[in-house]
C-alpha cells in the first residue's frame, strides 16, 4: 500500500558517543553501588532517559546538601567545582563521565590563555560547559552568545576565538567572521563537536528536501532545539517533540514528505516509537 506520508530519516540519529558513555557509566555505577548514586541536575537533557535512570537507581540532586551516598556521576558536560567538592565532602566516590570532546576543548582554552591570548568563546551563558570554563579562567575568558555581544567586547592584543562543543555552526561562523574584520590577526580554534556539526549539516540539506520536519529530543536539549531552528529558519513547518504522543496527525495533512531528525541525547527507543506513530499517521491519512 502506498503511504500518504513519505518519511525520510536522518542518517545520524540517537545518542552521540559522549551521551552513550555517560548513560552507561551512570547505569553501571548504580548496578555496582550499595548506597545512593547521584547526578547534579539531569545527567542529560532528556527527561525520559533520566527517569529510566532513576528507576535504575540514579537520583538527581538539586541541592548541595542532598549530596551524600555512595557515588556521584559527573555529567557529559562536566560539573562546577563547588558541586564536586560538596560530593567529595559527602564521602561520595566520583565517577567522571565528562565527555572527552569537552575535556579537549577545555584544555585548548587553558592553553590559549596560557599563551597570552584574549580568549572569546561562543557559547550559551549558564551551560555547564561554559560555567566550568569560566570558573577556572575567570576574567581571562569572555563568553558571547550573539553577534551583538561579540561586537561589544573590547579587543586588545592577540585574540583567539573558539566555541562551546554544541554551539550552532552558523552562529560560530558569523561571530568568527565579525571578529576577523575587527582584528589584524585572529586565531580560530574549531572546538565544535563533530557529532553535532554533522547533524546540523544534515539538517541544512534535509530542510531543502522535505515539506515538514519532526525533530525528536528533550525540550530543554540545546542541540535538538538548534536542529529545529534550522527548519524554522527556512520557514519549514517544524515540530520539536519529546515523545510520540505529541505528534498531531493534522500537522501532516497534505504533506507528502516528512523529515525526521533527533538530538544527541535522544534514545533509540523513543525514535522507534515516533517512527511507528508516523507510520500509522501516514497509513491513516491514506485510508
Ligand atoms: S555532543 Fe559531542 S561533546 Fe557533547 S557529549 Fe556528545 S560527543 Fe560529547
Detailed description of the structure:
By secondary structure, this protein is an alpha/beta fold. It has 3 domains: 102 residues, 4-hydroxy-3-methylbut-2-enyl diphosphate reductase, catalytic domain (Cobalt-precorrin-4 Transmethylase, domain 1, 3-Layer(aba) Sandwich); 80 residues, 3-Layer(aba) Sandwich (Rossmann fold); 89 residues, 3-Layer(aba) Sandwich (Cobalt-precorrin-4 Transmethylase, domain 1). The chain is 44% helix and 18% strand. The strands form 3 sheets. Strands 1-12-10-11 form a 4-stranded parallel beta sheet, with helices on both faces. The protein has a 4-stranded parallel beta sheet with strand order 3-2-4-5, sandwiched between helices. Strands 7-6-8-9 form a 4-stranded parallel beta sheet, sandwiched between helices. Helix 8 runs parallel beside helix 9. The longest helix has 19 residues. The N and C termini lie close together (10 Å). Iron/sulfur cluster binds next to helix 1, helix 4 and helix 8.
